[in-house]
Amino acid sequence: MASTDESFPRGGFKISASEDQSVKKPQKQENLFGNVQPITKKSKGKKKRQKQQDEVEATSVPEFINKTDSLTAVSADTLSIKKIHEGMSVLACVTRLNTMTVAVELPGRCFGEILVQNISATYTKLITDAVKADGGKLPSLDNVLQVGTFLPVKVIQIENDNKLRIFLTCNPAEINEHFKHPDFTKHMLVWGAIKEKSDHGYLIDLGVKNCRAHLPFDAVDAAKEYSLGQVLYMIVTKSVSSKEATTLTLSATQAAFDKTTESMGTSIDKVIPGMQVEFLVQKQLKDGLQGQYFDECTGFINDLYLAKSFDSAKKYKEFTAIKARLLYVHPVSKLGYFTLKSLNEKIPEKEKKLPIGAWILSTVAGKAGSGLIVKLSGGQKGFITHKRLLKSVNMKDREGEDLATLIANKFPVGVARHCTILDYNHTERLYICTFERITDVMNVEQLKIAQTVKGTIKEINDHGLVIMVGKLQAFAPKDNLSNVMYSENIRKQFKVGQEVNAKIWNLNIEKKEIILTLKPDLLSSNIHLSSYEGLSLSEQYPGVVIHVKQTGVLLLFYGGVKGWLPVRNIPQLGNKDARNEFYRGQIIKARCEVVEGDRLTLTLNLPKKKKVPVGKIIVKPKICEITDEGIYVMIGDIKAFVPKEQLAVEGLGKLLLSTYKVNQTLDEELICVIDSNPPVLSVREYVVHKREQLKIPSLPQLAVNVVMRGIYKEKNTISIPMKLHPGEFRIDDNGLKALDRYESISAQVAKRQGKGKILWSVGLNKVFGFSFMETVNYLDQYLEDIARLRKRYLLTGNPLVDLEIGATVDCVVNQVDLQRGCSVSVLPMNCQGLVAKQHCPNKLKPGTTVKGKVLWVNYQLKYAGITLKPQIMQKINDKQGKAISNLPKENVIVRILHANRNVAVGVLREDFNSQLVYLPVKLHENDFTPKIDYYDTLIDKEEYCKVIKMKSGRLLGVTVPMLESFKKKLKMYNTKIITLRNNLKKDEIKDKKKQVKNNKEDKMEIKEEDEGIASSEDIKSETEMVTSENDSEAEEDEDNDDIEVEEDENDSEIDENDSEIDENEVDSEADEIDENDSETEQNQNDFEMEETEENENDSESDSEETKTLPAITPEIETKKKRKLVEEEPAEPSSKKKKKKKAIEPPKPTNPLKPNKSSEQPAVLSGMSSFFEEEAPITPKEESDDEDTSLQQKKKLTPAERLQKAKDEEARLRKIENDLADSSLLPQNAEQFDRALLGNPDDSELWTRYIAFHAQSTEFDKARAVARRAIERISFTAMQDRLNVWLAYLNLENMYGTKDSFQTLFEEATRCNDTLTIYLETIKMMAEMSKFVEMEEKIKKARGKFKQELQMWLEIGKVYYTCGKFSEARKLKDKALLTLIDKNHVKMQLLVQYAIMEFVHGESNQGEALFETILQADPKRVDIWCTYVDQLIKKDKIDVARNVLSRAVGQKLAYKKMRTLFKKYHAFETTHGDEETLAHVTNLLREYSDK
Description:
Blueprint (H helix, E strand, L loop, with lengths): L12 E3 L31 H13 L11 E3 L15 E9 L3 E6 L3 E6 L5 H12 L17 E11 L3 E6 L2 H4 L13 E9 L3 E5 L5 E6 L14 E11 L4 E6 L2 H6 L16 E10 L2 E6 L3 E6 L18 E9 L6 E4 L9 H4 L6 E10 L2 E6 L4 E5 L17 H8 L5 E10 L4 E5 L17 E10 L2 E6 L2 E6 L10 H4 L7 E10 L4 E5 L2 H5 L15 E10 L2 E5 L5 E5 L11 H4 L5 E10 L2 E5 L13 E3 L2 E5 L3 E6 L2 E6 L8 H6 L11 E6 L5 E3 L1 H9 L14 E6 L4 E3 L8 E4 L12 E11 L2 E5 L2 H4 L4 H25 L11 E10 L3 E7 L3 E6 L12 E10 L4 E5 L2 H4 L18 E8 L3 E6 L7 E5 L12 H4 L5 E10 L2 E6 H43 L13 H25 L22 H16 L1 H5 L11 H10 L73 H13 L6 H23 L8 H10 L4 H13 L3 H14 L5 H18 L2 H14 ...
Parallel strand pairs: 5-7, 10-12, 15-17, 20-22, 41-43, 46-48, 51-53
Antiparallel strand pairs: 1-2, 3-4, 3-6, 4-5, 6-7, 8-9, 8-11, 9-10, 11-12, 13-14, 13-16, 14-15, 16-17, 18-19, 18-21, 19-20, 21-22, 23-24, 23-26, 24-25, 26-27, 28-29, 28-31, 29-30, 31-32, 33-37, 34-35, 35-36, 37-38, 39-40, 39-42, 40-41, 42-43, 44-45, 44-47, 45-46, 47-48, 49-50, 49-52, 50-51, ...
Helix pairs in contact: 16-18, 17-22, 23-24, 24-25, 24-26, 25-26, 26-27, 26-28, 27-28, 28-29, 28-30, 30-31, 30-32, 31-32, 32-33, 32-34, 33-34, 34-35, 35-36, 36-37
């Protein structure tokens, strides 16, 4: 609301000195301004109205009129609150449509409201008819008025009690009050309402008697349709008048409205605001224009209402006629005030872009009336009132100067300041601003559905809470205040001024209505349904019950979305009535079953989970959502996630993510790598799996030292794509650097910890086999991803795509640094370029334009690597990607030009067409610290390199020093493996010699000795036992082994079928080992690099040949040899001496890579290639393995037989000690019987005995044991007998029939306490989820023990633990009505149910119960303390503090107050701070002083 400072000069007229201070009555020839105005004749029938007008004139003389003889106009002032009077007509603009009112804006930044009954008589009748009709729909305000519509209004009442309110009306009967039917003439502007719709047009209500008006359809703009009761401006096109009546034909076209201008001679009493007149400019004032209209009437136009935002009055010359529209006529002075702005002009698009609350730059443009005019950064006009500038002015300096001068000096024209946008003024077409920074919510447009906000409670009424959110007023309905059913206890938890957290439940931007929800479950949930579009049929959305019928439940979601939940889709309901199971305000998580436009059918049934199996290939899915973390695609009706890290390598995925759009088809193929919800897909893993033909493994195949590819998750966890296993494992910290989530890495099995737990290592030396082809392939993938990114950038118009590597460009030097190089701008795209110091020519100056060549384009940092040296530019071919005749087989010389952490770029000599070659810097995905320093020293230097392959016109190579480094490390690794193999072979030969010796000794007669030597039968049985144990261990080792174990051709094989082994053969093999040791060094030098061919396929096939070597795992513990190279065909068996083969360096790669030299790929044990099914193991193969294990039995030596006998004796001794130890639990029936002989009354032992038989599915034996226990346990051990009965009942409940259980139950009630059996049985049924049987037992228990408090409490606890909160509360209410009137019993019942609400139910309901109890009996100190304890357990510290504060504020006995203060003091000591603790101390001191 605009306000006026009385001390501020408002202008108007300059008062000249005069001795006569009496007011002279203005005459017709000479009015206050020397203008002639017609004198209207007073009507006798309006004496009363004239009297009221005279009183207004006597009490409200305008401030620019004084009792003087000579008055001169000096200012064109604007409307203010003091100038507004009842009965005054003003032009207004609609700013907001509320439910029952319309908010409008008046000139001078004043505001008013129109009640719905004051719009038009027709609209009022429609509302009345709708209210009278049962279920009638109220007419919408949107059909009658729209925001931004200008309309004439009349002031009918001004209230200024607590808040100034101006009530207005736009009813045509009030606006046209001064009109009679003959007054309407052709081309006249009139205001009317749509009364009725006829066949040829609309009947119009003007509110004037004997005046009929008609608006034809052809006199309305095209596609325009009006509603009944709608008010609008119209132009009279035809008038037929008589003494009795007048008939008007009207037009509502925009052209007629803009064209019509009121003619001279029109009476000033017969004008309405919005009318267009001819305005004759007479004088330019300091803040506007003064002129005449209707030939003799005086009017003003303020600067704020000139045609354009920053127009000046000097632009309009004197005695110039312009068209202006009337804002209002002052009722006393009859002065008219006008605007040059069009009423139907659309707001410029640039003026709409400024959001309310924005903090933008502005410049002071001048002053206007009671404020400053500022020009905003976008060219818009802004206004800041003096009131908002008071804080910026030092009030002590006001002596001798007025406020306007101080503000003008503080903020002179041209000063730039930031300002906050507060609002937009439609009538003046400017923004209301302030220089203060305001961070509160200023406008509804700043909010969005489901947004969490903080607010302060302003008012509490019967319908809910009125909450202030920033500067806006919102409402929280009573059904949205708590998770539980609304009651007065819920309402008492809130207080005026209390700060609360809430979520936006619904928004109406046009009406500026904000609906909030305070339900804790909704505040904590991030899942919300706010639109009928884009919802997921598999997601469960929380909704609030707004209506319950017998056939179903109506749910309301965010944004006003509604859904119907029929009873057929509520599986828990059964045959029950929905009205008894649900209540208004209840939260239900439901899933959308059917979506038909804005009609939702909901269900509580969970959807069948559809999974995407790990390893499945996905082709061209459709993008459904894009987030900062990645993109979501649809695979049928399954929503899957593609992280940005899996779109491309080395951070390129983030750039690719910005190029995709929703509903676009993803061109790349993907593979499922994580079977989660949602499934995780990968583009880069598909590329690797396809190139290497990897296979998805299973858990048994992951042996120690196996290397696998995985996805890094978070907190040192990795996800390995696996079959039938989640694949989530822990990573050893060693070698792990900071990685982004979902980044691809390789990992090696470091340790198997049992039960599917595996510890992985990601160190580079663990997973990288020093294969140059592995490094080149990673570089190739990186370059391919850059090519994909560049291709997508071509679609988006990124200027970097115009830069091609090797192309010549024009550059403007920006800055030169002799130590680091220089920066340039690449023309014509004006991209940034960086030039290393090795590529900067001498005497380079900023601002000069030079030629350069592009060496590299960094799309992530948005710059290009440039060389400016002519001698280097000449060595680079402008056209890169040209195929050269043959790939060089020998090492070639390359000049290194550029290097970054991923790739180095060099140029070959003219012999190879001056082509660029790309060299790897990063060796592997796990190379977290690439050695870029090596290439930095080689910039603009030459080095030998080996060109490996050509892909897509790009040459890929490796420097010779890097190859030598790989070769050296491979030799070291090879030496280690060969040494390990020879050591294993020597150990095996020793075992063979020992076995030969044992075979000879077996031929001798073995004599038994008396001291500790076992008999032959014992030795034989012990040998068989040990052999069987060894066989089982061998089988287990074979199951867990993941890599095929093959015998080397150089190894001698032991013939298991022979009873003796030839010693000569053993000696010959020993000599062979020595020869192998001597040849180790020579074999290490046989390493040769394979040469690549010309085309891509040949090079790739050559590179794959190096992968035919299976994985080498130096696993010393298993002592199993790994095959190092591919074996040649075997020699004939007759030859004892086998051909020796040179040992080639091993290939430590991913064990899932295939072996292309054999028929089946060499992958993990039991695995085939990535695209083939795994071959099953036949029974014959299994039998062969068993035969082999049986053949490996060995005879024991006498010493070993002696040791076995001793072990058997120790075993038997251990068994005897175990039998004598009563602390050990029995393991068989015999042990149970033996234990029960000494403890026949031990119910725990009997229960274990029953469970022992039940686990073996021997239910009859279990029943027999239960019967024996009941007979054997003494009658004095009542608790033990009860325990056995309950175990027996549980047995029958789980494995018996309904009849057998019922028979046993009846017997148990006869032999035990009936209530106890009932309660324990009810608990048993609840644990087994047999709710139907449970309800039957509860019904009988309630009939038998209705006066037992324990029954009501225990059954209530069962309901709470089962989540049946409504049943528990109904039971509580029933208990209060059933129990005999004993206050202490009912009080105990309520307290226990309140505690159960806190522990098992809803804490808000528990608080309500405690509040009810304490309201009835506030002297119960124990209940106060229990209440506080429960709040503390729920971490509601502030609520507990409030409760204690209320408790100590009572007037109770000294002992009770002492208890409460002790509790309060202990509470603040634990949960408070020094301030709160001091507050408690002060309260205690005040209480002691009383």
